[in-house]
Design brief:
alpha/beta, 292 residues, 7-stranded parallel β-sheet, 8 helices, 30% helix, two-stranded antiparallel ribbon, 13% strand, globular
Length: 292
Amino acid sequence: MTAKAISDKDAWGSSAQSPATDRTGQTDNERIKDITVLPPPEHLIRFFPIVGTPVEKLKAQREKYADSLEIVMRVYFEKPRTTVGWKGLINDPYLDESFRIDEGLRIARQLLIEINRLGLPAGSEFLDVISPQYLGDLISWGAIGARTTESQVHRELASGLSAPIGFKNGTDGNIKIATDAIQAAAGGHHFLSVHKNGQVAIVQTNGNKDCHVILRGGKAPNYDAASVKAACDELSKAKLPATLMVDCSHANSSKQHEKQLDVARDIASQIASGSHQVFGVMVESHLTPGAQ
């Protein structure tokens, strides 16, 4: 077994401090912390021209609907796999099985810096429990996926994050594991982790009270009014706020991206009818259809 240490200097490219980015409009009372700005490495050039137009379009929509919507850009770097496959930009940034995780972290951080510079808050899934030390200060909202909601280490991680965190229901549609996760993350924990210099440390967290359920479907979609009510009833039984987010993708769209519009329309209809149980939706948006 071989290992390569990633130091603080390796991750940022420079240990020198520089001015923080401006505060962006964010969810609740969270703010993006001071960050270290670095010049983009040469290999990043091929990423940013691709990203520019979608970011600018989303920023325009955020400004247009600023009085009624809090729009956060979905920026996912890690992909949980049911078996095997490409695990995302951080794990294998060049999609060539070189697994340059050190460069993946650098690319991810620089991308988040650029997005935040444009005034957009970013949301991402926390899959690996170490990478948040390198990226967490640039994430305004986070998700714990269906496959990891029941994981103790991810609940502990969520308890120490400063951003609001959404826990997805299980892949079988189980809501209780998400409500249990919210309760677990709300409390303080002690556990082994690493600090920003990459050294192992005992971590103490104070708990994260800003957590919620994300309905992503299970064996069947669960975005309809009856499913939303049933989930909110479970939240009420657990003495938690009876509001939630709906994922328009995954099992709710039968993994067909075109059907996300149908889900969003249904949620809009529920809200128009006076429902206050759904406070947000998650939508997947990509440059082209397909998969890596």
